[in-house]
Protein: Aryl-alcohol dehydrogenase-like predicted oxidoreductase
Amino acid sequence: MQYHEIGKTGMKVSSLSFGASSLGGVFHDVKEKEAIETVFTAIEAGINFIDVSPYYGHYKAETVLGKALKDIPRDRYYLSTKVGRYGKDGVNTWDYSAKRATESVYESMERLHIDHIDLINVHDIEFADLNQIVNETLPALVELREKGVVGHVGITDLQLENLQWVIDHSPSGTVESILNFCHYCLCDDKLADFLDYFEAKGVGIINASPLSMGLLSERGVPAWHPAPASLVEACRQAMEHCKVKNYPIEKLAMQFSIANPRIATTLFSTANPQNVKKNIAFIEEPLNEELVREVQKIIGDQQRVSWSNS
Structure:
């Protein structure tokens, strides 16, 4: 396992890290005992960064994770959670007010059975008024940072342009890290175009969803996936190519996403301890760069064919 610092936070985290969304049954029902064992397995294997949110499973992920963390020494991991996205009784809610952000931090600490959050993030800022994020949400979190309740402050979003806008409109040092998903993987490496910008601002980079929410998997894309049909087909062809080479596309995707040392860590999520062991075994092997080029060519060529026919 390799370890990299998240920006200038001083947190040296494992290149592969644990996303706890699956503990909330976000993707399918989970067995709580197995989910807790998954957390133990990740820590024992050298993973030292865990990311969660009250939104995942509408507080369930934090609750289940908290049960695991009660039995893990606090110096074995860094914990990241979020504010802004919530839910109850199957209904999603959003609240980026300073009052709710502050309340949310203390509520998360109670569910997680911890007295300090290493990294607090504003969750999916695309759902908010970005001016409110800059002028209200982030200042509330900075105040908690100054009080020592949280260690560091970050923002998360799918849209890289939103992350850049908030950083540009916030006082220097406010945003210490960004979390972006589906933009540094075999089928989309847009995040690479922003690395110079984030580094120049002293902002650490957290990547998520190395399998692009199932696009890069033998199981195939879930029905809810927003990808256009052309990309789904391109990734299916890439998966079949890897299969012929007896090299699971999941393995190649994991290896690719953690291979860039400019990205501090890449999050994956599972509630199955065997998946943790499998993914760690994947990244312990060297990246097959020739196969990466072949896969990216397949995806690129298929996309160009689709564009030319549209």
